[in-house]
Specification:
mainly alpha; 2 helices; elongated; two-stranded antiparallel ribbon; about 5% strand; about 80% helix
Length: about 60
């Protein structure tokens, strides 16, 4: 099994976006901006299936 560099780069980008959205969500929750908190949580929920889809499509099997 070999992984392409493009799929790894996309997964790293999604991981970075997840970290940013999580930090933003915690910051907004601390300052009691709950609508922004829910928005960041929705972004995190949307990014997870995107990462899973890229992971499943990025696996290459060499025979």
């Amino acid at each position: 099994m070999k992984r392409s560099y493009v799929s790894v780069a996309l997964l790293l980008a999604i991981l970075m976006l997840n970290i940013i959205a999580t930090q933003y969500m915690v910051h907004q929750y601390f300052y009691e901006n709950y609508t922004n908190t829910i928005g960041a949580a929705i972004i995190n929920v949307i990014l997870f299936p995107a990462a899973f889809f890229i992971y499943k499509k990025g696996v290459k099997i060499n025979d």
